[in-house]
Each structure stands twice: as structure tokens, then as C-alpha cells.
Amino acid sequence: MPWCELSCVLPRDLADAVSEFLEAQGAIAITFAEDGDEALFEPLPGEMPLWRSPRLTALFELGVNPEAIQADLAARFGDKLTGWRRQILADRPWERVWLEHFKPLNFGRLWVCPSGQSPPDPNAVYLTLDPGLAFGTGTHPTTALCLRWLAAHPLSGKSVIDYGCGSGILAVAALVLGASEALACDLDPQALTATQENARKNQVAARLRCCYPEAMPQVAADLVLANILADALIALAPTLAAHTRPGGWLILSGILESQAEAVKRAYPGFAFRPPAVEDGWVLLAGQKQ
Question: CA 132 from chain center: how many Å?
């Protein structure tokens, strides 16, 4: 069925109050997005970060009166809410809408293709992907840097750990490129579900294990991948180092150029190669000494 969408820009400190008000008016979904070019970096543990003036979007069933809801919000919060937008959304298979913008992507000898599409080169190594509700399609520079690294290095027979696996794109890519086994870890159950499904679609599920961080076995792998964010990579340094075997490789991504040196300092037992850089993001590849 069609849906009614109402959105506005608001100060960050009003986010909770406006959300609660809209939920009481029947909103079935509320999201926040950037309304400018303000950078938003990783939060401290337990925090939920927002931009200073995010755009709030609320979704309602079609029977509501958006003009009345807007008037009530204006009466309650005054001119602090700006940039009002109202629209009717036609019903669509939203879980597949992302496919309209996700086309086959090339990373050297590896192609990443959405479900139902084939790579331009039928002889290429390719990964079929449906991220579901988890992060990771290969379009973001942090993921693209990791995929290029994987495609450029021999992985045959290697054991792999993907820490913070998201959609599982890195673990599954390593397996289709020849790795013998992969262990994928994430806090989010939706990420583990997406990872298992993507492994199944690519016929590598038998060589993949998934777990939550607290259930990680005490194993060391030939290759450890962590595409997270700088503060988390620094905090996890003892854990990620322990999971990398001597002589093995640690691949760290999700790092801004300005954060690279701080991340490297957290891993004194690794010899890092010159960083790979794309659009201000950095990949660090270090070999454990």
C-alpha cells in the first residue's frame, strides 16, 4: 500500500522528543540522515551519534493527516523545526530497491555482483551479494580497499578471520578467491544472518563459521580483516593481534588519513606497508613479526 512520509530538519537535542511525539502519532518508522556535509565519526561505547542538525523522516500509513501533525509539531517545538517535506510513497518491494543502484563492481580479478546479475567477464572470479540489513556492498571506499587487497594477493589455502563482518563480503570474497576457511564475527545478529546467506549463495558456506565476539575461539589466522572504525580498531588491538599468527597479515580499514598513525601505533608488533588511500580513507596492511 502507499505510505505517507513527513520530514524536517531539527536540532540534535530535540531528536528524542520529536521522535517520541511522532511515534505517539502513529509513525511506523523514524530515521535520521545528514542534511548537509557535516562529517560524523565513530561514537564512544554506548553512544548513538547524530549530526548537529539531522533530517528526521517519519513514515506513516496513508490515513494520517500530515498537515495536522506538522501543525502540532510547530505548536510544540516552534521554529526550531525547519525544511519541512511531505510526500506520498508508492508501495514498492523495498528490500530490493537497493538493486536499482548496485551494479557489478570490479576489484581486479574479483567482481562483486548483486543477486540476479552476472559479471561482464564470465571467466572472472565473482561474488554474488545481497547485503540484506547489514553493511557492506563494495561501494564504500573502506570496503573497496579491502576487496582490492584481497584480489591482489594469493589466498589459496589461507585461514581468514573477518572481525566486524557486516554483510560478510570480505569473508566470502576471501573464500571465493581460494582461502581454505573463514571465521566471521559481528555483534549484530542481522550481520551474521546476511553473512551466512551470502556464503550459501556463493557455495562456500561449508568453509565459513559465524559467531559473536564473546564466542570467538582462541585461534590465530593467516589473515585477519577488520573494516570497522579507527577508535574500535585501537581498542581491539590486543584482540586482533592475538588472532593473527606470526608472519600473518592484518588488514585494517575504516580509517581516515588523519587517524592512520594513531592506529598504527596501537599495533607495535606489526610491520606495516605504505597505506592504500581512496577518497580520504586508508587501508593499513601489516605483517606480524
Answer: 11
Do 160 and 179 contact (CB within 8 A), yes or no?
A: yes
pLDDT of residue 110: 93
- Distances 223 to 106, 136, 180, 192, 285 between C-alpha atoms, Å: 22, 19, 11, 20, 10
Q: Does residue 114 surpass a pLDDT of 90?
A: no
Where along the chain do the CATH 3.40.50.150 domains lie? 136-288
Q: DSSP letters along 210-242, please?
A: EE-GGG--S--EEEEEEES-HHHHHHTHHHHHH
Query: Into which CATH architecture does domain 136-288 fall?
Result: 3-Layer(aba) Sandwich (3.40)
Architecture in CATH of 3-91: 2-Layer Sandwich (3.30)
pLDDT digits (tens, 9 = 90+) for 87-108: 988 765 544 554 555 678 889 9
